[in-house]
Amino acid sequence: MHRDARALAWRLDGRGPLDGRWKAVVAITRGGMAPAMIVARELDIRIVDTISVKSYDHQSQTDAKILKSPDAEMMGDGAGILVVDDLVDTGQTLELVRRHFPQAHFATVYAKPMGEQQVDTFITGVSQDTWIFFPWDMALQYVEPYRGTD
Predict the structure, then answer these.
(1) 91 three-state secondary structure
(2) In 3-state terms, what secondary structure has residue 126?
(3) Catalytic residue among 13, 77, 86, 129
(4) pLDDT, tens digit only, all 150 positions of the chain
(5) Does 86 qualify as catalytic in the annotation?
(6) 22: helix, coil or strand?
(7) 102 near 57, Cβ under 8 Å?
């Protein structure tokens, strides 16, 4: 994830509308928080906010709804704002956010075919039936070696 989020930052570097820079980064929570933080660090963007959208109930997709919006004065119509998420799946979340901030630039680390049209920049395409387990979804635990122990 870290490597791919840095690659996303590299791809976005110099592409902002303010002499190549971005006004702010807005993370779509919760999945977009880690990649947004990495992108903000790599591109030296100091203004970081969040938009909270719920579109999943565990691993089942539901209708997307905004639970918390970013600072309205900063956002305007989204011009100069970089909206970051971990993954675009069906595009439902990004479509909802784009309706509110049509001039924002939408970037994800991963993209599935059904959602690609909603994202402006992404790093890796994955098949629609792929489920990605992100580090924040997993618990660390000891695993026995394949060959067992002596």
Answers:
(1) coil
(2) coil
(3) 86
(4) 999 999 999 999 999 999 999 999 999 999 999 999 999 999 999 999 999 998 777 667 778 899 999 999 999 999 999 999 999 999 999 999 999 999 999 999 999 999 999 999 999 999 999 988 888 777 777 777 777 665
(5) yes
(6) coil
(7) no
Catalytic residue (one of 85, 120, 129, 150): 85
Report the alpha-carbon distance of residue 140 to residue 41 in Å, rounded: 26
CA 97 centroid distance within chain: 12
Active-site residue among 89, 120, 129, 137?
A: 89
How much of the chain is in helix, strand and coil states, percent to nearest 5? 30, 35, 40
Residue ranges of alpha helices (H) inside the chain are 2-12, 33-42, 72-75, 92-100
String of DSSP letters for 28-58: EETTTHHHHHHHHHHTT---EEEEEEEEEET
Quick check: is 44 catalytic?
Answer: no
User: For residue 8, which of 45, 40, 39, 29 has the smallest C-alpha distance?
Assistant: 39
Q: Is 80 left (phi over 0), alpha (psi -120 to 50) or beta?
A: left
Reply yes or no on whether 85 is catalytic. yes
Max intra-chain CA distance, the chain: 64
